[in-house]
Amino acid sequence: MISACLEIIGLGLSVIGTLLVMVACGLPMWKVSAFIEGNIVVAQNIWDGLWMSCVVQSTGQMQCKMHDSVLALTTDLQTARALTVISAVLGVLALMITIAGAQCTNCISKESIKAKVVNVGGVIYIIAGLFVLVPLCWMANNIISEFYDLQVPYSKKREIGAALYIGWAASAMLLFGGAILCFSRPRDEKSSYPPKYIPPPTKSTFVNGDYDKRNYV
After folding, report:
1. CA-to-CA distance for 158 and 27, rounded, in angstroms?
2. Among residues 112, 125, 124, 117, which one has the least CA distance to residue 100?
3. In this structure, are residues 198 and 135 in contact, taking their beta carbons and an 8 Å threshold?
4. Which helix (H) or strand (E) holds 76?
5. d(Cα 34, Cα 102) in Å, to the nearest integer?
6. What is the rounded average pLDDT for all residues in the chain?
7. How far apart are CA 124 and CA 130, in angstroms?
8. For 87, phi and psi rounded to 5 degrees?
9. Which of 47, 99, 111, 173 is an S-S bond match for 54, by CB 3.0 to 4.6 Å?
10. 210, β-bridge pairs
11. Chain centroid to CA 169: how far?
């Protein structure tokens, strides 16, 4: 019963984390305009994402443009694109594997194999969480470094956008959910049914009505 509850909690956290990874991957708010010092023009707000850049006017109108070339992007954006997509794919793969080994399904009949399958799903979720965590921290480090760089003009400075915070929340859910799945059902978990007792074979004491001499010492 406890292992089933842990499976549900771990799987729920992992599924929510995978959905948040997809949301963070599609949002254009990885970098947003920083209004500091001489950059006091608030008529428009610039958003930079993995797939597009958007300009939001003070009137509420928004214009977005897809990135023309992948090779023209910076290294951190290219890496973030690849790793977030891989993380989302791994999350979907781990979901199918975990459901196949869950206690509420009959895809696998042997309990020991089902426990191993669930553990494998948890490991994949942890890997997915690490894959999305790397580009988030890399991107945040670049944003902070450029923000405090005096050679970067104020109009080029950016701040951390909402997509990074969503990605960090997704990474935490994937890591915690995967860890719970890994420890929810130990691989050496024994069956709840007691082993069947088989009595040992008895030796024949009498042979043709006489005492067997082999039993005599």
Report:
1. 16
2. 117
3. no
4. helix 75-101
5. 47
6. 81
7. 10
8. -60, -45
9. 47
10. 207
11. 11
SS3 (DSSP) at 206: strand
Contact 84, 21 (CB under 8 A): yes
Helix or strand or coil: residue 199? coil
Return d(Cα 209, Cα 205) in angstroms, integer: 9
Instruction: Look up tokens 């070339």; give the residue.
Output: 69
Of the candidates 116, 114, 123, the one whose C-alpha atom is nearest the C-alpha of residue 90 is 123
Q: Which residues pair with 48 in a beta bridge?
A: 31, 53
Instruction: List, for residues 115-171, the tens digit of each pLDDT value.
Output: 888 899 999 999 999 999 999 999 999 989 888 888 877 777 888 889 999 999 999
- Report residue 22 as tokens: 């997809």
205: how many CB neighbours lie within 10 A of its CB? Answer: 10
Model pTM score: 0.78
CA–CA distance, 30 with 58 (Å, rounded to integer): 20
